[in-house]
Amino acid sequence: xxxxxxxxLLLLVVLVVVEAAVVPAWRNSKPHHLxxxxxxxxxxxxxxLGCLQLTEDWYMPGxxxxxxxxxxxxxxxKFMIHTRTNPAxxxxxxxxxxxxxxxxxxxxxxxxxxxxxxxxxxxxxxKWLKEMATAFLELGDYNVIRVDWxxxxxxxxxxxxxxxxxxxxxIAHLANHFISNYGVDPANIHLLGxxxxxxxxxxxxxxxxxxxxxxxxxxxxxYFTETPEFIRIDNTxxxxxxxxxxxxxxxxxxxxxxxxxxxxxxxxxxxxxxQPGCNPVSIGIEMIEDLPEGIRDLGACSxxxxxxxxxxxxxxxxxxxxxxxxxxxxxxVGRCASCGEDNSKCxxxxxxxxxxxxxxxxxxxxxxxxxxESPYCYYHxxxxxxxxHPKEAEDWVQGHLHVTLFGDNGETITNxxxxxxxxxxxxxxxxxxxxxxxxxxxxxIRMEAHxxxxxxxxxxxxxxxxxxxxxxxxxxxxxxSPMDYYPEETRLDHTRAQCHVGSEYVKIEDDQTQDLxxxxxxxxxxxxxxxxxxxxxxxxxxKTVRVLSxxxxxxx
Length: 556
Description:
The protein is α+β, with helices and mostly antiparallel strands. It is 25% helix and 25% strand. It has helices at 7-29, 72-75, 99-102, 127-139, 157-182, 196-207, 280-289, 291-315, 328-332, 488-493, 524-534; strands at 42-46, 50-54, 78-82, 93-94, 113-117, 143-148, 189-194, 213-217, 240-244, 265-269, 321-324, 346-348, 364-368, 379-387, 396-407, 412-417, 423-426, 430-437, 444-453, 473-482, 496-499, 506-508, 512-517, 545-548, 551-554. The strands form five sheets. Strands 4-3-6-5-7-8-9-10-13-11-12 form an eleven-stranded mixed β-sheet, sandwiched between helices. Residues 1-10, 12-36, 281-291 and 519-556 have low confidence and may be disordered. InterPro entries: AB_hydrolase_fold, Lipase, Lipase_N, Lipase_panc, PLAT/LH2_dom_sf, TAG_lipase. It is found in: Secreted.
């Protein structure tokens, strides 16, 4: 069996050579017969699959070399089906668009169909495809079909990028055979593709009327970024198209994916760029445990994270809820906790992405964070630290705020530092944070807050001598909102603002801890009214604050 563990490194070499050397030469000295006005239309035809054309519209600076696909037999696309009723679930049972072959398999036209397609210099026998197939069958009763176009993925990248047009036709041919001859509902067909396989799935979607869903797993960027929709995966290729971007850097920065949104919803875990755990130390440890997988990650760790995240979503109860935000920075500082009144600002990454309530939207960017290894899923929490500004307080203080949180489900997060670096708190102004944890707290019912003032040696203005200034932090409340509770009404029901018992605010001296929790003596409505007047316009979406079950909470 073929094993291309060094494929990512070869891909990098090939693409750097093409983009760094061939593109300038093509721009400056292209032959007369290749000029845009003199290119002849080229055609690839097959008696079963039909014809493909290569026109001048396929040529552009990002696609300087365009080839016709190789012959169908050279690409040699194969399909292997797995079902729960297979005697050996991961045995290679081949299937094709012929009734005599289909009827010898355990294919069931009444069950949903999942196609899984690999990318460049890969095969359908890779470990991750089998793991995803297994996870699908453990989750539900599906027909899972692995697509193997390994023979067509071997040439130069430009040739492989051409060959996936035929792979798309092959997938469509089999899917349409299911639809025409077995009564399969196209809405129950779901295509998943990694890298070039994402675009192959897009080509297939163009030929399958009413296709239910395509999931792009880090769609390949080189030759596809900023190209017309007919060249790449896009939101018209299925009723719903979702993409996961994990390696969005440019190829010259060692990225194989794309930053460009190409679906109805595009997910950007950890910004969509370098993924946690994709560093030489972590990969070195992985190589000790699993040499082939470690070598593979050495060249394309972030690129492969997309299919690992999707597979994880099949196995984990953690929700993988992502939030729409103007950019990743705004998400990281806690500015995008709300799913919106119509719940259009949140979607589940992975298997449940098709539960999104506004599927007709286009190129919606959603963000979330993950851990460096499986289970990758985190729970996200928005924190709003609401400070007071009595006369004795400094205008601002800086330092570290640690919290210990107690949930109503008995779970606890201890000694959590809200930021790695010291933070400036302007008294009288709210401060937003976001943190992640594997712990689901449900509703926070009690909190311990510890304050440490921090002088910066390089900033003389930050020095605060005890006899000359006040190092204390003055708190009105700390609001915790669990961002992974959906829909929006549920998130609001779990949002709690923790205050000090019996007073409007609490003074926390340097290196001291205060207890914040619910008490029947709190004047919640008065506190909420004060907050509503104090928060600047636009800080809260509807500028209202509600009392929920005796707790002061704000919709943000």
